[in-house]
Amino acid sequence: MKDLRYPIGEFEWEGELTEDVLASWLHELEQLPANLREAVTGLSEEQLDTPYRDGGWTIRQVVHHVADSHINAYTRFKLALTEETPVIKPYAEDKWASLPDSQMAVEVSLQLLDSLHARLVSLLRSLSQEQLNKTFVHPESGSIELKRNIGIYAWHGKHHLAHITSLCNRKGWK
Ligand code: NI
Protein backbone atom coordinates (compact mmCIF):
# COMPACT_ATOMS: atom_id res chain seq x y z
CA MET A 1 0.00 0.00 0.00
CA LYS A 2 1.13 3.52 -0.82
CA ASP A 3 2.60 5.56 2.02
CA LEU A 4 -0.04 8.23 2.68
CA ARG A 5 2.64 10.47 4.16
CA TYR A 6 4.45 10.71 0.82
CA PRO A 7 1.78 10.91 -1.89
CA ILE A 8 4.25 12.34 -4.46
CA GLY A 9 7.36 10.60 -3.09
CA GLU A 10 10.34 12.37 -1.57
CA PHE A 11 12.19 15.33 -3.11
CA GLU A 12 14.72 14.14 -5.67
CA TRP A 13 17.11 16.22 -7.73
CA GLU A 14 20.70 15.68 -8.77
CA GLY A 15 23.07 17.14 -11.31
CA GLU A 16 23.08 20.55 -12.94
CA LEU A 17 20.18 22.91 -12.49
CA THR A 18 18.84 23.74 -15.94
CA GLU A 19 16.88 26.91 -16.67
CA ASP A 20 13.83 24.77 -17.46
CA VAL A 21 13.90 22.99 -14.10
CA LEU A 22 14.37 26.26 -12.22
CA ALA A 23 11.53 27.87 -14.18
CA SER A 24 9.21 24.96 -13.39
CA TRP A 25 10.04 25.12 -9.67
CA LEU A 26 9.37 28.88 -9.61
CA HIS A 27 6.11 28.35 -11.49
CA GLU A 28 5.04 25.71 -8.97
CA LEU A 29 5.83 28.06 -6.08
CA GLU A 30 3.91 30.83 -7.81
CA GLN A 31 0.86 28.61 -8.32
CA LEU A 32 0.83 27.02 -4.87
CA PRO A 33 -1.41 29.54 -3.05
CA ALA A 34 -4.09 29.32 -5.77
CA ASN A 35 -3.82 25.52 -5.91
CA LEU A 36 -4.18 25.23 -2.14
CA ARG A 37 -7.16 27.58 -2.20
CA GLU A 38 -8.81 25.50 -4.92
CA ALA A 39 -8.14 22.28 -2.98
CA VAL A 40 -10.00 23.49 0.13
CA THR A 41 -12.76 25.53 -1.52
CA GLY A 42 -16.18 24.13 -0.70
CA LEU A 43 -15.01 21.90 2.16
CA SER A 44 -17.10 22.01 5.36
CA GLU A 45 -15.60 22.80 8.75
CA GLU A 46 -15.88 19.11 9.59
CA GLN A 47 -14.03 18.13 6.42
CA LEU A 48 -11.32 20.71 7.16
CA ASP A 49 -10.90 19.14 10.59
CA THR A 50 -10.39 15.62 9.17
CA PRO A 51 -6.85 14.17 9.43
CA TYR A 52 -5.38 13.41 5.99
CA ARG A 53 -4.27 10.03 7.43
CA ASP A 54 -4.70 8.23 10.76
CA GLY A 55 -2.69 10.17 13.32
CA GLY A 56 -1.82 12.89 10.82
CA TRP A 57 -2.59 16.60 10.68
CA THR A 58 -6.03 17.80 9.70
CA ILE A 59 -6.47 19.62 6.39
CA ARG A 60 -6.70 22.84 8.42
CA GLN A 61 -3.38 22.13 10.14
CA VAL A 62 -1.77 21.22 6.80
CA VAL A 63 -2.71 24.62 5.34
CA HIS A 64 -1.39 26.48 8.40
CA HIS A 65 1.74 24.30 8.38
CA VAL A 66 2.53 25.30 4.79
CA ALA A 67 2.39 28.94 5.94
CA ASP A 68 4.57 28.19 9.01
CA SER A 69 7.08 26.34 6.89
CA HIS A 70 7.29 28.81 4.04
CA ILE A 71 7.66 31.77 6.42
CA ASN A 72 10.73 29.97 7.78
CA ALA A 73 11.91 29.18 4.24
CA TYR A 74 11.60 32.84 3.18
CA THR A 75 13.65 33.89 6.21
CA ARG A 76 16.33 31.31 5.38
CA PHE A 77 16.64 32.57 1.80
CA LYS A 78 17.00 36.13 3.01
CA LEU A 79 19.53 35.22 5.70
CA ALA A 80 21.63 33.32 3.16
CA LEU A 81 21.49 36.26 0.73
CA THR A 82 22.62 38.80 3.31
CA GLU A 83 25.04 36.85 5.51
CA GLU A 84 27.97 34.53 4.91
CA THR A 85 26.75 30.91 5.12
CA PRO A 86 24.44 31.46 8.11
CA VAL A 87 23.40 28.63 10.39
CA ILE A 88 19.62 28.66 10.32
CA LYS A 89 17.18 27.81 13.09
CA PRO A 90 15.04 24.68 12.76
CA TYR A 91 11.58 24.79 14.30
CA ALA A 92 9.41 22.10 15.93
CA GLU A 93 6.78 21.81 13.20
CA ASP A 94 4.46 19.46 15.12
CA LYS A 95 4.45 21.82 18.11
CA TRP A 96 3.84 24.81 15.83
CA ALA A 97 0.91 22.93 14.26
CA SER A 98 -0.51 22.32 17.74
CA LEU A 99 -0.57 26.02 18.73
CA PRO A 100 -4.00 27.70 18.69
CA ASP A 101 -3.37 29.77 15.55
CA SER A 102 -3.34 26.50 13.58
CA GLN A 103 -7.07 26.21 14.41
CA MET A 104 -7.99 29.49 12.72
CA ALA A 105 -9.91 29.73 9.46
CA VAL A 106 -7.80 28.41 6.56
CA GLU A 107 -8.50 31.67 4.72
CA VAL A 108 -6.11 33.46 7.07
CA SER A 109 -3.16 31.35 5.93
CA LEU A 110 -4.33 31.30 2.30
CA GLN A 111 -4.12 35.11 2.26
CA LEU A 112 -0.78 34.99 4.06
CA LEU A 113 0.53 32.56 1.43
CA ASP A 114 -0.75 34.79 -1.41
CA SER A 115 1.38 37.66 -0.12
CA LEU A 116 4.31 35.57 1.05
CA HIS A 117 4.67 33.70 -2.24
CA ALA A 118 4.37 36.93 -4.24
CA ARG A 119 7.42 38.23 -2.37
CA LEU A 120 9.22 34.88 -2.30
CA VAL A 121 8.87 34.21 -6.03
CA SER A 122 9.75 37.79 -6.91
CA LEU A 123 12.91 37.49 -4.80
CA LEU A 124 13.87 34.07 -6.18
CA ARG A 125 13.34 35.17 -9.81
CA SER A 126 15.85 38.00 -9.22
CA LEU A 127 18.71 35.74 -8.11
CA SER A 128 21.96 35.64 -10.05
CA GLN A 129 23.83 32.41 -10.69
CA GLU A 130 26.20 33.36 -7.90
CA GLN A 131 23.33 33.92 -5.47
CA LEU A 132 21.70 30.61 -6.44
CA ASN A 133 24.95 28.92 -5.43
CA LYS A 134 25.02 30.54 -1.97
CA THR A 135 24.39 28.24 0.96
CA PHE A 136 23.07 28.16 4.48
CA VAL A 137 23.72 25.50 7.09
CA HIS A 138 20.88 23.52 8.60
CA PRO A 139 22.13 22.12 11.94
CA GLU A 140 20.68 18.67 11.12
CA SER A 141 20.84 18.46 7.30
CA GLY A 142 24.10 20.33 6.75
CA SER A 143 24.91 22.77 3.94
CA ILE A 144 22.13 23.55 1.46
CA GLU A 145 22.48 25.61 -1.72
CA LEU A 146 19.72 28.13 -2.38
CA LYS A 147 19.00 26.59 -5.79
CA ARG A 148 18.38 23.22 -4.14
CA ASN A 149 16.22 24.88 -1.50
CA ILE A 150 13.98 26.31 -4.23
CA GLY A 151 13.36 22.75 -5.42
CA ILE A 152 12.81 21.51 -1.88
CA TYR A 153 10.08 24.10 -1.25
CA ALA A 154 8.43 23.64 -4.65
CA TRP A 155 8.25 19.94 -3.71
CA HIS A 156 7.12 20.76 -0.15
CA GLY A 157 4.12 22.74 -1.38
CA LYS A 158 3.04 20.01 -3.82
CA HIS A 159 3.62 17.36 -1.12
CA HIS A 160 1.15 18.97 1.28
CA LEU A 161 -1.27 19.90 -1.51
CA ALA A 162 -1.37 16.20 -2.39
CA HIS A 163 -2.20 15.33 1.24
CA ILE A 164 -5.36 17.39 0.81
CA THR A 165 -6.31 16.34 -2.73
CA SER A 166 -5.65 12.64 -2.09
CA LEU A 167 -7.82 12.68 1.06
CA CYS A 168 -10.62 14.42 -0.90
CA ASN A 169 -10.28 11.79 -3.64
CA ARG A 170 -10.37 8.87 -1.22
CA LYS A 171 -13.42 10.34 0.53
CA GLY A 172 -15.12 11.26 -2.74
CA TRP A 173 -15.53 14.85 -1.51
CA LYS A 174 -14.51 16.62 -4.71
NI1 NI B 1 5.87 19.96 5.73
UniProtKB/TrEMBL annotation:
It is an enzyme of class 3 (hydrolase). InterPro entries: DinB-like, DinB/YfiT-like, Put_metal_dep_hydrolase_YfiT. Keywords: Cytoplasm, Hydrolase, Metal-binding, Zinc. Residues 28-164 form the DinB-like domain. NCBIfam families: PRK13291.1. Possible metal-dependent hydrolase. This is Putative metal-dependent hydrolase EM808_23465. It comes from Niallia taxi. The lineage of its organism: Bacteria, Bacillati, Bacillota, Bacilli, Bacillales.
